[in-house]
Amino acid sequence: METVTYTNPRGETVTFGGPPFYLQSVTGLGDVTVQIQTQKSPFQDGSTYLDAILDEREVDIIFLIVADLEQNYGDVSKARARIAQICNPKLGPGILKYENDYVVRIIDAVASHVPIYGDDSDRTKTLQKSTLTFVAPDPYWKSLKVEEEPAFKPLFQFPFLGPFQMGLQQDRRIINNDGDAPTPIFVEFYGPALNPKIINNTTGEFIKVDQELLEGERMVIDTSEENKSVFFVGENGEMRSVFHWIDLDSDFFKLCIGENDIEYTADNDVQGAILNISYNKRYNAV
Prior knowledge:
The chain has one helix spanning 73-86, and strands spanning 3-7, 13-16, 21-27, 34-39, 48-54, 57-66, 94-99, 104-111, 116-117, 127-136, 141-142, 146-148, 152-154, 167-169, 172-177, 185-190, 193-194, 197-200, 205-208, 212-213, 218-222, 229-233, 239-241, 258-265, 275-279, 282-283. The protein has one helix and 26 strands. The chain is mostly beta strands.
């Protein structure tokens, strides 16, 4: 069974796939056009491939508003008003979630128009056919959030079973990105640490902040294109931007496709420091 759920920036939600909004069809799960970037030198036969750029994604939904037989057209009218309110393009992008029996994917999207309703042939006192189109500026479908737990190296094992673990916390971990594209990460690094540094040994990229992260503070890094940022957050929740303290050779790197060897370090001993990493895998299609 397929369902599509839209949640707007105010947290209001509507689900297409059950009463009173029955999903008839959804398109745009895979069909995104691509611009092939090339360059051509003088006297060159053909051209040289540079990159492939995905265009925006459009997701079209056709659904039926179905009221109880004992109810009247007023209930259909109220449902129409509810859809128009929740999917209001003026509110900005929300989250569109597609789900079937095998997979769940989400994407940031905004309705490109108010709901389109059919003519009289598509309308009765208890039924109304409608169409909505959502535009996703970032065309990638994303998995639900993946949270990487701190890694431990086991030291020894007791001769009994149970949820008991002892070992040394490691300062590096392997993350496998089996999605279709590099993906940004969200990092929390807990102090104390002098000049904390996060390294992707697979690509050689790193993020280093030339500043002391104090006891009780945590460093928060977001490498997404729309929200690149580095903050130190105190125990009271107060945030201070340390963007201007970033090492000039740093890159807001993404997890490349495949294996990523992530290491965290500092100019002092960080053995036992806590590093949390979360991300969403990105997919070309569902």
